[in-house]
């Protein structure tokens, strides 16, 4: 029998659909971060067991950590037609985000793959969802995914 390493998969989900135990681990992390108290004190305050906290703590990370400049990348499949990338850049410019890099591969079968690394700050975090929605609705954008953040 072959020993395969389980492939990790990541999802962006609304915190409200997570089980209470996961939400409580998030609360503990928030309290530790904001109030600079020990994990043990935060665990007691939230009212979860230490075993529950330590079971899940390494698997939970906010997509964007507030108060910091954040770099994230979007990966897109684009139709090989003039102006598609320019329209995407216009949407990004409208939000005021800083473009760090743009990588676009040569089109194969009429589709090119592009990655854009963006820098944003706490004030712009609310604009990201709207920006991504606007980009995904543009003519010529076949697929859009967030592939990473710091």
Automatic annotation (TrEMBL):
Stretches assigned to the ACT domain: 73-149
Domain of life according to the entry: Bacteria
Pfam families: ACT (PF01842)
UniProt cross-references to InterPro entries, sorted A to Z: ACT-like_dom_sf, ACT_dom, UPF0735_ACT_dom-cont
Family: Belongs to the UPF0735 family.
Stated name of the protein: UPF0735 ACT domain-containing protein PM10SUCC1_13260
Species whose genome carries this gene: Propionigenium maris DSM 9537
